[in-house]
Amino acid sequence: MNTVLSLLTRSLALIVLAWYPFAATAQEKTATSGDAQGYAYAAPAFIKELDTRYPAQPPVPPSPPRYGGVLHFPATVRAFDPMAGYRPELALVWDTLTEWEATWYFPEVQRTPTIRKTLATSWEMVNPSTWIFKLRQGVRFHNRPPVNGREMTAEDVKYSYELLKDKAQYSTRAALVKTIQVVDKYTVRFELSMPDPRFYLNVVDSLSPVIVPREAVEAPGGLAENPIGTGAFMLKEFSPGEGALLVRNPSYYLKDHEGRQLPYVDAVRLFFTKDPATDTALFRTRQLDLMRVSTLDVLYALMKTVPDLALYRVPSFGWGDYGVSMALDKKPYSDVRVRQALSMAINRDVVAEVINRGDAALYGPFPWALAGYTKRADYTYASLGPNYEHNVKKGKELLAAAGYPNGFDMELEWAEFQGWTFNEFAQLVARFFGDVGVRVKLKQLETSTWIAKAAGVQPFTHTLAAFSPIGAGPSFMDWVYLRYHSSFPRTINREGISDPKLDDLLTTWRLDPGEKRPAIQRAIWDHLRQNVYRITTIVPPHYRIAQSYVHAGANPYCWFPGYCSYEAKTAWMTEKAPSRKFEKFAQ
Amino acid sequence: MRTYVARRVLQGLLVLWLVSLAIFSLVRILPGDAVIMQLDQAAAPSPETLARARQELGLERPFLAQYRTWITGALHGDLGRSLITRRSVTSELGKRISLTSHLAVMSIVVALLIALPIGVLSAVKQDTASDYLARFFAVLGLSLPDFWLATVVITFLAIWVQWIPPVGFAPLWEDPARCLGQLLIPALIIGARLAAVSMRMTRSSLLEVLRQDYIRTARAKGARERAVIVRHAMKNAFIPVVTVIGQQFSVLLGGTVIVEFIFLQPGVGSLMLDAVLLRDYTLIQGAVLFFAAVIVVTNLLVDLSYAWLDPRIRYR
Prior knowledge:
Chain A is an alpha+beta fold.
């Protein structure tokens, strides 16, 4: 009977648990953003509160920093091996020749991206096809066999570029490196296959080849089992699917702006979480110190239960927009009037409301900042033009003019993607297209198939709901030149855009040494927003939250340690941080 | 008996070979491949670069050549290297098998501790309040999906008691306290659902046995009711229960993916799901072969246990 009673008690508890969220939802009509009890809230008031309390630029942390502690944050790393695949977190272990001083997520700094000199200390353009890089002296690889802390030299740079430049994950940046020569122990010369007056931007961050030691690559198990680099942290334990433990490199060469040795923390523990409920539970129990939050709803719930958290609400440069790619080689999508009509059919305010309760910015053909719009106040319909404004009547007229007065049938392919709401987006788009007479058949894909289609490896039938193709840095080359120039295959130019006038503009930009580039970029923007080769809608901001005892904002422009290695190097924790061991991952 | 076991082992080997062929073929029919799945969204490789990457992974070799290399290695205990992590599949599987085995055994123990006493009680006290209550909770257990229960439990544990099971698996023999702290809650969630099935099976099976002639005979001889149930009825009633538990154990080895995800306890199930999503062919093949082997062995053990439970059963 006791067992029965115990079961009864447990079950009653479960019923209470089950009922609780619904009870909270029931408060929706009366709850406000200041309501500390409920999870339901008035989103506009909350967004207004965020605008006031959390300006885009995070506060500068106090000085001096405190050394020690173990920093915990979530990540997605499937292989700690630069040979196998790219992840920004690899920059904790392996350095590139340079890295971004300021993240590109702030339009104010985008126009003049600053570069931190890591392994390279200076560079010189001999001519647009020949570049010379001087290397930092005295940089040592991690002191582990078989490399045993030997010095990194120009031979390592040559070896790494030759090894990695044609790998799929690095080829965006490094493919145009034709040859690399060692001039002396600390100098390398790059010969390019085509002129690039801004080549120095191609060696920044971990989408460019990282520098690896030959001995580790050639040892049994390769870099996967000998993860040795020059980075601020050394990989101590990697448990696929679970997490990783990295400890500080005691002989790291970089110092902070006041000359203090980096990094400040003793270790970094990464958690490879896959479910938002896990992330939030880990954060609430102080097992995560920092995390990204994907939606305003989750942010609200966390701010209510962890009221002292620090929030950085960062406008997205362009990553994570919601858009629709069209098969431009097929009718009716080859007709600009049809593309304009479809774009006009979408009410982007409603998309923002449904995707993230209204907390999102309008998004155009490519990042605003690259077109010279450096203030958030510029992110308006007026700047985008009539093709982006909701206008069903005009859309119907354009379709009629294009020969489709009764609309047409369309298949819209989409997939679930962790952390994003493509389901709702696809349904909304179908509904809006229906307003101008286009009959949409939604086709859900398995995620891997969708990724293959978004990567241009497989064709899509008519339209594909997906993120716009992106770049890794504030580089017009990554975001625009590669994605819109007709000389590139579908794996780079997803829609197969082929427009001679656009090609001319892009080539002019490519060959310009720099003075006229801003004007050419604006001209390309104007051309693209007129031709609507890809329908773009909105992009939600990034939310980064941190526990009150963490300072990870030494660089006010970087928003997440995993995405900007300098943040992990300069993060530090106060004495209020939980005491943690770092002998092994499971502690 | 020996002939029977030998025949079953040979049948099992044939099944494993067919499974290896089927899985090796099926994963290659899936659209996409490991090269595409590893690409960052910002990467923009040319088709030639992608083809070279496939060549490096050996994905462009003829089907039979790839199969021959893999099956030869498997026969020597080498399941190859993961296409994603570049680590040995055997070592990747090793830790996950340990975690999954811990979770499966603990869940089964939880399920049995709940199901057997309640199932027996429910059968013995048929159509009483205890029986109705037990059946109500059995239906409730079947109706609550694992993923929902796990999400609710982890969320409210974090909010109410500021504690959730620790992340980072430690085997029972290395750190018993950590192991129990980590796996007990997931095992309770999984076990509660399994218990519902086992409890219903125990009840119905025992009810059927209790109506048999030999039970009536035992009672007529003056045996005490407890002895009738424990000594005469329960052993026979457990044959279908053992079958269900055997099936549940096999399912548990790969079927706890969502609970594994939510509690960040990566077992074989989540390993396999990741491998499928990332098109990590070698890892999928290794994991499926492992599952097949476990299921073949479990089924054999379940069949052999029938003879122990019911001496009337003989194998030829």
